[in-house]
Amino acid sequence: MSRRAAIILVFLILVWGGPWALGLITDWLWFADLGFESVYRIRLLTQGTLFLVGGVAALALLLGNVFLAQRLSHRALGQVELPGHAQMRAMEPTFSLAVIGGGLFFALTMAGSLAARWSDVLRFFRPTAFGATDPLFGRDIAFFVFTLPVYRFVQGWLLMAVVLALLAAGAVYAFRLVLPQLPPAGEDGTEMMRPRLSFTLDLSRPMRAHLFGLGAVFFALLVWGYRLNVYELVYSAAGAAFGAGYADVHARLPAQWFLMALSLLSALLLLLAVPRGGFRLPAAAGGLWIAAAIVVGGIYPAIVQRLIVQPQELERERPYLERSIRMTRQAFALDRIQEVPVAGEETITSEEIAQNPGTIGNIRLWDPEPLLTTYNQIQSIRAYYEFVGVDVDRYTIDGEYRQVMLSARELAPERLPSQAQTWVNRRLQFTHGYGAAMSAVNEVTPEGLPTLFVQDVPPRGKVPIDRPELYFSEKSADDVIVR
Q1: pLDDT at residue 255, rounded to an integer
Q2: CA–CA separation, 277 vs 280, rounded Å?
Q3: Which helix (H) or strand (E) holds 20?
Q4: Low-confidence ranges of the chain (pLDDT < 50)
Q5: In this structure, are residues 320 and 239 in contact, taking their beta carbons and an 8 Å threshold?
Q6: For the chain, which has fewer Cβ within 10 Å, the N-terminal or C-terminal residue?
Q7: What is the pLDDT of residue 277?
Q8: Helix, strand, coil abundance in the chain, percent, nearest 5
Q9: Could you please report the per-residue DSSP string of 130-169?
Q10: What is the pLDDT of residue 56?
């Protein structure tokens, strides 16, 4: 490796790996400070294992099929010399480099996507039963929370890998079988008029077995995907409520089973095409699947929804609405609430008022929305400060436990003038909000303004604020540098 290439490689490693390494070190220090090194270690070990397994598997699948296609195509050609063989040999190093580079790129990409699902994988291996079943399939809800997402990701990951392997193998066959049959280019760039050899483009049986086998695996993975689609109907948002509705149960569910059977038939047709030769069976398999996916998988459920469900939607969806309400109540433990009838009294006596001074003295009169507008008008102080929301809390003020309304004075750097929208101002100068505004919930000044317990910049009032700087808030989003 030359010195220039080594410098470029080190530079690329620093540019791409530097931010990742800094983030890794920062997270490690944070977990260590909290005493959770073992938790972060498990995460790193899981991510590293998944990345390694995913990268090796993807690379083996992609390059393995490329090398197999090269070997089979070389065996099929034998010693036959075609017009474009010299042109193919000249382009072969570039083509091989492109295939290997593309395989490495896709392998790293797929390895990264697998490593990113580390939390799903850990939950998959350590599930906890919910003790409750879904009403459609009767399976424990833990299956839909911990198991199904991993099944879906693995199915999609394998499907993408098989598609890439099929494309890579097809590219090799096209390069080695089609390109040599093209007439070589003349000196002026035009094709030389030479008689072509009568070489058939029919694939040999091993090559058919290779390509059609990959196609059969593709359809087999589609069978698995449609089976997962059946379970994912519990997530459906197409009906009147979240979850499986009338059209899902009576149209989409049968459609998924039909597409599952059709995909299995398509895989068998591809396998039958290996000894028979030709492309009629593969074309028929692909055409049937595409047509069924459009008509059965898309159009038929839409027709059922439009013509059967919508004219009588309440009647059709009533059982599924009741099921959704029942399961929602169960999820939030609302089904365990004990209902007790309480007879309300029409009047409140003076004795009751005297016995509940804390409640009566804190009846809220201010509404959050107009109070937020008032805060921004009288307490934002600077153009680059803003109150985002008003909350209700309780503090001890003058020895009395009071209900108050308050809002943090947050930084709004977008309010700076356009000429002040510089990196220095946004990252070094204007870095944080400052203080808060607090007022009583039930008091108004003679001018109609709230009675403020905390106000101004720097904050002053009846509740001391020792550290008024506000670096983390509802509005903060940019990175800043302090000290």
Answers
A1: 94
A2: 9
A3: helix 3-34
A4: 187, 191-201
A5: yes
A6: C
A7: 72
A8: 65, 10, 25
A9: -S-B-TTT--BHHIIIIIHHHHHHHHHHHHHHHHHHHHHH
A10: 93
pLDDT given for residue 462 in this prediction: 93
Q: Parallel, antiparallel, or unpaired: how do β-strands 400-411 and 460-461 relate?
A: unpaired
- Does a cis peptide bond (omega within 30 degrees of 0) precede residue 368? no
User: C-alpha distances in angstroms, 349 versus 343, 352, 355, 363?
Assistant: 16, 5, 10, 17
**Nearest CA to 173 among 283, 281, 71, 275?**
71
Cβ–Cβ < 8 Å for 375, 437: yes
CA dihedral 356, 361, 363, 366 (to 10 degrees): -170
375 Cβ neighbours under 8 A, 6+ residues apart: 387, 390, 407, 437
What's the 3-state SS for 195-228? CCCCCCCCCCHHHHHHHHHHHHHHHHHHHHHHHH
- Cβ atoms within 10 Å, residue 188: 6
- What is residue 406's three-state secondary structure? strand
Q: Which among 403, 399, 401, 409 is positioned nearest to 366, based on CA atoms?
A: 403
3-class DSSP state of 57: helix
Who's near 246: CB < 8 A, 6+ residues apart? 239, 304, 308, 309, 316, 317, 320
Q: At a CB cut-off of 8 Å and minimum separation 6, what does 243 contact?
A: 234, 235, 236, 320, 323, 324, 327
Q: How many CB atoms lie within 10 A of CB 208?
A: 21
Per-residue pLDDT tens for 173-199?
877 776 555 555 554 555 444 444 334
Supply φ then ψ for residue 36, to 5 degrees.
Answer: -120, 40
Quick: pLDDT tens for 123-152.
999 999 998 898 889 899 999 999 999 999
pTM, two decimal places: 0.68
Where is 66: in which H helix or E strand? helix 37-77
Contacts of 401 (CB under 8 A, 6+ apart): 358, 394, 395
- What residue ranges in 355-397 does DSSP mark as E strands? 385-387, 391-397
Among candidates 169, 158, 204, which has minimal Cα distance to 58? 158
Q: CA 202, CA 183: separation in Å to the nearest integer?
A: 19
The count of other CB atoms within 10 Å of the CB of residue 371 is 19
The token pair at 192 is 């030389």
pLDDT, position 197: 39
Residue 182 carries which side chain, given as an amino acid letter?
A: L
Structure-block tokens of residue 285: 């398999």
Residue entry with tokens 């969806």: 317
